[in-house]
Design a protein that fits this description.
The chain is an alpha/beta fold. The chain has a domain of 141 residues: Rossmann fold (3-Layer(aba) Sandwich), CATH 3.40.50. It has nine helices and ten strands. A six-stranded mixed sheet has the order 6-7-8-3-9-10, sandwiched between helices. It has a four-stranded antiparallel sheet with strand order 2-1-4-5. A hairpin with a 2-residue loop joins strand 4 and strand 5. Helix 3 crosses helix 4 and helix 3 runs parallel beside helix 5. It is globular and about 55 Å long.
Length: 251
């Protein structure tokens, strides 16, 4: 579960996030959408404790990410938009390192690593140094490592970057299966078709403000539409928000 209460973030005079409030339930697949510089990555960095908010709070499975960071972080599997590795390690050594960080018993870590490597087609790369892996292979390794400790919450930023269609399908199936088993998934993406396919609810953020929240059907009803894909809905809602912001500035 993720609980966000009045979360705001300023970078100097720039307000990147304005009083965000969200509650994402266990087992919910939530997609977070927005144009570039809308506040998506800032939100994720606040949720994972990489930034300290200007005001407000975020809780992971009941634990405040700022005041109880260890308890919160041990329940999260996080995949950033650009994953960082110890490049001189092999893929299997990196998984062992992650297992130690999350105190996964050695035997269990080996079993889970084997299953994840099979799932994400990483077995042929297990003994290769990470510096020699392709971008897509590194992305699959990042996702596998985030799932190793069986997190209760998965926070993932642009998971399909660099993946071919076959591996993208595997990642989508794995994330959906985890959600259906009770894991909370918070996914930020520019791929609207992925959000439309997978998400139970969608949040749209624009200039740091949450401007829409609900399923695709809810968003259609907001625009008095009977049909329309998520791309058309997204473009119309963000255009409305942009126009409203321009009117405020003019007044």
């Amino acid at each position: 579960m993720i609980e966000i209460n009045d979360l705001s973030m300023d970078y100097g005079r720039l307000r990147a996030l304005e009083r965000l409030n969200l509650r994402i339930e266990p087992g919910e697949f939530f997609a977070f959408l927005g144009p570039n510089a809308a506040g998506k990555t800032t939100t994720i960095k606040l949720l994972t404790g990489l930034l300290r908010p200007t005001s407000g709070s975020a809780r992971i499975c009941g634990f405040d990410i700022q005041t109880q960071p260890m308890e919160a972080k041990r329940r999260v599997g996080y995949v950033p938009d650009v994953a960082e590795f110890y490049d001189k390690l092999t893929a299997i050594e990196f998984m062992s390192f992650i297992a130690e960080l999350f105190e996964v018993p050695v035997g269990e870590a080996r079993r889970r690593t084997g299953a994840l490597f099979e799932r994400f087609a990483l077995v042929p790369h297990a003994s290769q140094r990470i510096e020699n892996l392709s971008h897509g292979t590194k992305q699959r390794l990042a996702i596998a490592s985030a799932l190793l400790h069986n997190p209760e919450v998965i926070i993932i930023d642009e998971p399909m970057v660099g993946l071919d269609p076959i591996n993208a399908r595997v990642v989508k199936e794995e994330l959906k299966a985890r959600s259906e088993s009770g894991v909370t998934v918070f996914l930020s993406t520019h791929l609207l078709n992925v959000a439309e396919e997978l998400a139970d609810r969608i949040g749209i953020i624009h200039r740091g403000r949450l401007i829409a929240l609900g399923g695709v059907g809810d968003l259609r009803r907001r625009l008095a539409r009977e049909t329309g894909d998520l791309e058309a809905i997204f473009l119309e809602l963000t255009a409305e928000a942009e126009a409203a912001g321009a009117n405020v500035l003019e007044n």
